[in-house]
Write a structure and sequence with these properties.
The chain is an all-alpha fold. Helices cover about 65% and strands about 0% of the residues. The longest helix is centred in the last third of the chain and has 20 residues.
Length: about 80
């Protein structure tokens, strides 16, 4: 059965949380349900701030280095044939 939560409680939990996942954990709702409820409230005019999608910093240079190294390894492998 779906978890029942008032709009007031949802907003209070939203304000005290740092991520959608945290709101879901505190309310017992799924992440998709939390996002849907937040979107519906915003469409109704509630000034609900958006939560960051990533709770950990994105290491762009590190991820690109992995890709570059993988591409180089693939190129080296194809050169041996």
């Amino acid at each position: 059965m779906a978890q029942k939560i008032t709009f007031r409680d949802f907003v209070l939990i939203w304000l005290q949380s740092t991520s959608v996942a945290e709101v879901a954990e505190k309310t017992g709702l799924t992440i998709n349900s939390v996002r849907a409820k937040a979107t519906a409230l915003r469409k109704a005019g509630v000034k609900l701030e958006k939560k960051a999608r990533h709770t950990t910093p994105l290491d762009v240079s590190g991820l690109n280095a992995i890709i570059d190294n993988s591409c180089k390894a693939i190129e080296d492998d194809t050169d041996t044939y």
